[in-house]
Write a structure and sequence with these properties.
Length: about 675
């Protein structure tokens, strides 16, 4: 590691050790780089042991990347014990060790948003998705604000608030009966624990002596409290962030936290970085001119030495199919012309639902692609089946997991028995698993119906005993054989999907085997790891030559040589709901994040008409396009502008052909 790879303010940030530091700077200015280099500096020159340092990133993927980058700066011995994780996995880690203080067992289950939504929908007695989502969001916001159900019920002004507050209470009761936590609990409960147990606080403050936090602008109140508690009066931390990239207000992120830092830590030093090392001057100018339309919190300037670069291409398309086709054609033509790799391209969009049509167009041209931030491997039904068993083995009180496991494949327990069990468990405030063992319930059902249920419980107990002793992969495979999962798949599906599903299951088994061996993790550890992976993104993807597809939210912090930002229309970006709710500034920041992912070229596309709920609607290009200085823009496809692909169309066909033949092309000359 050499500090010559940093500019002067970056070096200052690394040398500032004896108090809190905030690096506040625009996109691509090397904030994340400051964090990695600072970790190396802390270990090598400041005498802080790796095990006393924690770096916090926004996603698991970012954590992996950071660890990789640190691995390039230092050797493995030096970084042993270093924590690089998200707030959620740090919280989970703390809770695993401290659960009994909170009346939980260490093997608590972690429910994903889907399971949590299901509980809420059961409480509300509705399956209306939108209603459930609204209530769920409100509960989550309250939880992140440390409000308890009684408090919010007392303060409720509208009928909706009151319904949410009562649902919140019932929801919390259900979670504790299941020994389960949701994602919000993973931050909220550690904070409560640190507040109420001084000895626990002291232990963690001594353990994590230096904190580094990336993407600080997207922390919420809970996360901020966690930082404040952990760093204590010493305030030994470095936070880096960009107020213009705050895009998680809808999940409770609070930009005020940037100001709070100044208030709560009067000694806070602020360092600004102004040189951007990522993008050409034109891309940067486009980003700056769009964001200039938002009111400024902090004054920032960004400049780049990477040359003026190509104008931003703005492409008008007829409709969404046409857009997908044109984007793919232009991508191929560009690849052919510049001799780049597929992995140099990213297609970014506002919402996951936009991806499907681009996937289809890419597949038609046999272009390899990788999705992130979309439906992940762990969301596939067959994978969720196996995970349900894993969750149940870790924590038999996890009712949603029990119901799924007991019914896939069916274990001979009838619906009537399950209903009686549910009613009994509800009355007694017990989990289903615990209720099944009580005499009061057992008297209510016939022995012939009880026996399969008890068999199932014995199987789970037996597996639980072995789960702490045996390798996770092999044990899972054996369990699948015991329950006859493969045969059940083939019985209930057409052969083709069954085969694909079984292959996915085997991939999971292999992953468990590998993880278990590498990191010495048991099936129980891995169950909790998976819950965290599913929160924001897919699993580790190895670096392959594929076009990256991602939502704007999931692209935060990343960079790609060539970016296609699609669906840049009123109603999509900015999103209609945000326009209606006066959240246009957040949408503009999202646009800013999108533009600043691009290193060398940026193409924005929009449609003239789009299908919505089965009807064709004429739509307008996004206001953000007109906010870009028009001297940096080149239009295609609209009257009087350049044709869509003409000049390169022939080449595109050729490129297409070469892609189909799998011919290897060379690297981009300009890299
Ligand atoms: P974002 O706001 O998007 O998260 P960031 O501020 O974290 O961006 P980085 O990702 O750290 O920026 O850096 C952007 C790019 O610039 C990276 O490729 C990084 O390696 C490079 N970079 C950062 N600082 C320097 C430097 N001093 N010299 C050369 N390259 C640099
Ligand atoms: Mg970054």
């Amino acid at each position: 590691m050499s500090l010559t790879q940093l500019n002067t303010p970056q070096r200052d940030a690394i040398h500032h050790l004896d108090g809190p530091l905030l690096v506040l700077a625009g996109a691509g200015s090397g904030k994340t780089r400051v964090i990695t280099f600072k970790i190396a500096h802390l270990i090598r020159h400041a005498g802080i042991s790796a095990r006393n340092i924690a770096a916090i990133t926004f996603t698991n993927k970012a954590a992996r990347e950071m660890l990789e980058r640190i691995g390039k700066l230092m050797n493995p011995g030096e970084i042993r014990g270093l924590t690089v994780s998200t707030f959620h996995s740090l919280g989970m880690h703390m809770l695993r060790q401290e659960a009994p203080h909170l009346g939980y067992k260490p093997q608590f289950s972690i429910l994903d948003a889907f399971d949590a939504g299901k509980i809420i929908s059961d409480i509300l007695l509705t399956t209306h998705k939108e209603e459930v989502r609204k209530v769920q969001t409100q509960i989550s916001l309250w939880k992140n604000d440390f409000k308890n159900p009684q408090e919010v019920l007392d303060a409720a002004e509208t009928e909706f608030d009151a319904v949410c507050a009562r649902t919140y209470q019932a929801y919390q009761d259900t979670l504790s009966a299941y020994q389960a936590m949701d994602f919000d609990d993973l931050i909220r409960l550690p904070v409560q624990l640190l507040r109420s147990h001084p000895e626990v606080l002291e232990r963690w403050q001594n353990k994590l002596r230096y904190l580094l936090i990336d993407e600080y602008q997207d922390t919420n109140t809970c996360q901020y409290q966690m930082v404040k508690l952990l760093t204590g009066v010493r305030g030994m931390f470095t936070a880096v962030g960009d107020d213009d990239q705050s895009i998680y207000a809808w999940r409770g992120a609070n930009m005020e936290n940037l100001r709070l830092l100044q208030h709560d830590f009067p000694k806070l030093k602020i360092i600004k970085l102004e040189q951007n090392y990522r993008s050409t001057a034109r891309i940067l100018r486009a980003a700056n001119s769009v964001i200039a339309n938002n009111p400024k919190l902090f004054e920032k300037q960004l400049w780049s030495e990477l040359g003026l670069g190509e104008p931003i291409h703005v492409v008008q398309c007829k409709d969404e199919e046409h857009e997908a086709e044109i984007v793919v054609q232009r991508l191929l033509a560009h690849k052919f012309e510049h001799r780049t790799d597929f992995k140099d391209y990213a297609i970014l969009y506002r919402g996951n639902y936009q991806a499907r049509i681009f996937e289809q167009a890419l597949r038609n041209q046999r272009i390899p692609y990788q999705m992130s931030g979309g439906q992940s491997f762990f969301d596939k039904p067959e994978i969720k089946d196996v995970i349900a068993y894993m969750r149940l083995i870790s924590n038999p009180d996890d009712d949603p997991a029990l119901i799924r496991a007991l019914t896939t494949p069916r274990r001979g327990v009838g619906a009537g028995t399950l209903e009686k069990l549910g009613a009994y468990a509800g009355q007694r405030q017990k989990s289903l698993f615990a209720a099944a063992h009580e005499e009061g319930f057992q008297h209510q059902v016939q022995p012939a119906q009880l026996e399969p249920l008890l068999d199932f419980c014995r199987l789970i107990n037996h597996l639980q005993y072995r789960a702490t002793r045996e390798p996770a992969g092999a044990l899972t495979l054996e369990m699948l054989q015991t329950i006859g999962y493969e045969a059940w798949l083939y019985d209930s599906e057409e052969p083709r999907p069954a085969e694909t599903k079984w292959k996915n299951v085997l991939e999971l088994v292999a992953w468990l085997g590998k993880k278990g061996e590498q990191d010495g993790k048991t099936l129980i550890d891995l169950t909790q790891t998976i819950a965290l992976i599913t929160m924001l993104e897919g699993r580790d993807e190895s670096e392959v030559d594929a076009v990256k597809m991602s939502t704007l939210h999931a692209s935060k912090g990343l960079e790609y040589p060539h970016v296609f930002l699609v669906g840049v229309e009123e109603g999509i970006l900015p999103h209609q709901e945000s326009v209606d709710n006066g959240m246009i500034e957040e949408e503009r920041r999202l646009m800013y994040v999108g533009i600043t992912r691009a290193q060398r070229s940026l193409t924005l596309s929009y449609c003239v008409k789009r299908r919505r709920a089965g009807e064709w609607l004429f739509v307008d290009p996004s206001r953000f396009i007109s906010e870009i200085d028009q001297q940096d823009v080149k239009h295609f496809g609209r009257p009087g502008a350049e044709p869509l692909v003409s000049r390169t169309e022939g080449k595109a066909r050729l490129a297409n052909l070469s892609a189909m033949l799998g011919a290897k092309t060379g690297k981009d000359g300009s890299t």
